[in-house]
Design goal:
The chain has 237 residues and is α/β, with parallel strands linked by helices. The chain has a single domain, classed as 3-Layer(aba) Sandwich (Rossmann fold). Helix content is 41%, strand content 13%. The radius of gyration is 17 Å and the shape is globular. 42% of the residues are buried. It binds S-adenosylmethionine (SAM). The site of S-adenosylmethionine (SAM) has 22 residues, from helix 3, strand 2 and helix 5.
Length: 237
């Protein structure tokens, strides 16, 4: 039996080498999700056996590029106000235009419509309460969800996320193992270490979804009633 924190830590450790190789060519950017946070998101999705990802909030596309490079079968990225030049540059960097569907959509209105049962969903716009509202609406049907920027200054939102069982990327053990991935990005933002940055920005909260595929009889399986997180394990209760 594994709890969610242990599952997240182990998934990240198991995927770390592969992630490093896949993400090496992606240029760090100012105001993007940190590499360690992207490792966490992609690693947990992979460990849950999820092959479809929906992201909301791509801006210049750092997180989008990383998810695309991690090679999920189906990947859609929404932004309410995308910049055409940024999207064109992203597709050029990726080289394979078909690897990600770039949409101009407001997640508050359209996230439900573009997600399917079992998807991994990454929210980096909208933020805060709006993002948590989407989590409470969609978590049950998703495979996992993650919300960016739930830092320690957002006490109420962070407490809500903790009550919902989130694992946070500023976990001490997680940072001591994977924080080194963020060195360049921290420098870009003028921070010497995580301590300064994560008090004002960043921190990814990762939630286990309620959906874990279908069993042999076509019944949906749920994490909620399950203590076992290994993909392929069918919930007994
Ligand atoms: C911090 S940026 C995203 C950075 C990106 N994830 C990265 O790592 O490089 C936030 C983006 O979210 C978008 N956004 C804000 N509210 C949104 C909404 N309701 N639906 C979709 N996109 C939204 C903004 O237009 C902006 O481009």
């Amino acid at each position: 039996m594994t709890n969610w924190r242990d599952f997240c830590l182990k998934s990240a450790s198991d995927y770390a080498d592969e992630f490093k190789a896949l993400s090496e060519s992606t240029e760090p950017q100012h105001s993007a999700i940190l590499p360690s946070e992207m490792l966490l998101f992609c690693a947990v999705a992979k460990a849950l056996g999820i092959d479809a990802v929906v992201e909301s909030g791509r801006k210049l596309g750092y997180s989008t590029e990383i998810i695309a490079r991690c090679g999920f079968e189906d990947f859609t990225s929404l932004d309410v106000d995308p910049a055409k030049e940024a999207d064109d540059a992203l597709l050029q960097r990726l080289g394979v235009a078909g690897r990600v569907k770039l949409e101009k959509l407001d997640a508050m209105m359209f996230l439900r419509a573009v997600t399917e049962q079992g998807d991994a969903i990454l929210l980096d716009g909208p933020k805060g309460r709006k993002a948590l509202g989407l989590v409470s609406n969609l978590l049950g049907q998703s495979g996992m969800m993650a919300v960016h920027d739930l830092n320690v200054s957002m006490k109420d939102e962070r407490a809500t996320a903790a009550e919902m069982g989130a694992f946070f990327s500023d976990d001490e053990e997680f940072l001591s193992e994977h924080g080194h991935l963020d060195e360049t990005m921290l420098t870009y933002r003028g921070y010497g270490d995580h301590g300064e940055l994560i008090s004002v920005a960043n921190v990814l909260a990762v939630f286990r979804g309620g959906y874990n595929g279908r069993d042999g009889d076509g019944n949906s399986r749920s994490w909620w009633s399950c203590d076992v997180f290994a993909p392929g394990d069918i919930c007994k209760s």
